[in-house]
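Record minuted for completeness.

…
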Amino acid sequence: MLNSMTNLQYLFLNETAITDEGGPNVALCTNLEQVSLNDTAAGDVWMKHLAELKLLQSIYASGTQVSDAGLTFLANSSSIRQLALNDTAVSNKGILSLNGIRLKSLNVQNTNVTGDAIKSALPNCKYVIE
């Protein structure tokens, strides 16, 4: 279905039955600016394909299966500015892999991420960890 929506700018799939199986199709939506996958079974495969989108600015993936492996795919993104990963398996290791991207806002409540790791990898980023 996503392969016919190439002009889509905003994709909200919160609380749906999506899984990583649908992840590859999102790369066809080259005009996406914001994706919300909160409380779904989406995981690292989605992050891999979202990282390919040059206009994508915001990813909301709280309560998903995203892990540190998924964050490594985002490490080369030049467009991502907001990332919400509350209630996920991400840790300091994943955050440190984001060193150098121009993230402005990061939400990682109920994760194993510390403020020190965020300050080290993303010194100009505002964040919420508690």
Q: What stands out?
A: The domain at 2-128 is CATH 3.80.10.10 (Leucine-rich repeat, LRR (right-handed beta-alpha superhelix)). The helical segments are 23-26, 44-50, 68-74, 92-96, 115-121.
